[in-house]
Amino acid sequence: MKVLVTGGGGYIGVVLCERLLRGGHQVRVLDRLYWGRAPLQHFGESIEIRQQDVRAFDPSALDGVDAVVHLAGLSNDPTAEYKPDANWEMNAVATETLALACKRSGIERFTFGSSASIYDGLGDGLFDETTKVAPRGAYSQSKFAAEQILLRESCANFAPVILRQGTVYGHSARMRFDLVVNTFIKDALLRGTLYLHGGGWMWRPLVDVNDVAEAHVRALEAPADAVGGEIFNVVHENFQIRQLAMLVSGSLALQDRHVRLENAALPAIRRDYRCTNRKLADHLGFVPRVTVLEAIERILSFLPVESPLALAHPRYYNIEWMTLLEEIGASEAPFASVWDATPSPVAKIAALT
Ligand SMILES: NC(=O)c1ccc[n+]([C@@H]2O[C@H](COP(=O)([O-])OP(=O)(O)OC[C@H]3O[C@@H](n4cnc5c(N)ncnc54)[C@H](O)[C@@H]3O)[C@@H](O)[C@H]2O)c1
């Protein structure tokens, strides 16, 4: 298949492109390249890259395409709250534009990177895809709206699959250190201390980035009538945040690094929810299997553990990068060049320590 991956230059997108190529598929990336071209450099000529904003979608991006994986957009609460209008246009409106363009072009296969944060705010319970949800916050609400649009457009010739991804961990050539496991690894190396906000009792469904990529590929390759118009939670396991802190500190203890765990105040945005992956296992025969411990080891093998200052670079934190681009007047400028022009992380480290 030739697959168009929107957001293919992002944390999940890069790993998904690698998985698609390994599976013998062809890849075209459509991305605003918010994080520059560097994360895609290792692909060389093996993928096609179109630098484009999904809000100004050019249907020629679908020429010759058999399937679409839609990941582009703002990808967390802080950036969505910071730019709610842009968030709505990217995450909800652009999803509709893309779905309608696919239908016009006769592209049946489509997967969407939704979020399990849709389940937040429902109280205690293990939620599944039939749960009546009431998403809170700009990000989750826009993801839910996009889901509703896709379900509405689902028909005999258009088979969108909605993947409600848990909070992702693991290594990618476009690394994010603003996701809980990855953040704990960075904080452990930089500060030697992990802060457990509100004691770290909140629950989260977690999944490795390679398993997320695998879920998209399985959904694209499954018979359309088995998955079209369906929602699947993509989750390895549910964890309390303090468990994750213990897994990270324990992994570093094995490397003779002592990491302190400290209680801290509750954060402004508090997410607490659990969900099940049973439908994914039953319908797609896929159970996300990469454990948090395995991912921690892999991430550590890629990091400059003896000189971790580089991990504080704002390019690894979506909200910091977004506000930095604004500060330097580059919010709509050529992002790739800004990537290399950002200030040294050393100044930020001084503020952290
Ligand atoms: N990472 C997670 O934990 C997680 C969990 C659940 C859902 N998701 C969803 O999965 C998707 C991918 O997440 P990620 O972690 O890779 O995020 P990311 O921020 O690393 O990647 C998003 C990519 O989309 C691109 N993009 C953003 N706005 C765009 C626009 N208007 N036009 C074109 N391209 C644009 C960015 O340049 C970037 O390459 C997102 O939709 C996110 O909401 C992520």
Radius of gyration: 19 Å
Q: How much strand?
A: 15-25%
Give a count of the beta strands, DSSP E runs of length 2 or more: 14
Classified in CATH, the superfamily of the largest domain is NAD(P)-binding Rossmann-like Domain
Oligomer: single chain
Say what the CATH topology of the largest domain is.
Rossmann fold
Can you list the ligands bound to this structure? Answer: nicotinamide-adenine-dinucleotide
The second-level CATH architecture of the largest domain is 3-Layer(aba) Sandwich
Helix content class: 25-40%
Structural class: alpha/beta
> Main beta sheet, described?
7 strands, parallel
- The unreliable regions are 342-353
Integer tally of domains: 2
How far apart, in Å, are the first and last alpha carbons?
Answer: 49 Å
Mean pLDDT: 92
Helix-strand pattern:
EHEEEHHEEHEEHEEHHEEHEEHHHHH
**Dominant shape:** globular
CATH class of the largest domain: Alpha Beta
Number of helices: 13
Strand order of the largest sheet: 3-2-1-4-5-7-11
Description of the molecule:
This protein folds into 2 domains: 2-171 and 206-234, Rossmann fold; 180-203 and 238-271 and 291-352. Helix content is 40%, strand content 18%. A 7-stranded parallel sheet has the order 3-2-1-4-5-7-11, with helices on both faces. A 3-stranded mixed sheet has the order 8-10-12. The termini are far apart. The longest helix is centred in the first third of the chain and has 22 residues, at 84-105. It has 353 residues and is α/β, with parallel strands linked by helices. Helix 8 crosses helix 10 (292-302). Residues 342-353 have low confidence and may be disordered. The relative contact order is 0.14. It has 13 helices and 14 strands. Nicotinamide-adenine-dinucleotide binds at residues 7, 9-13, 31-35, 53-55, 71-73, 75, 90, 113, 115, 165, 167-168, 174, 176, 179, 318.
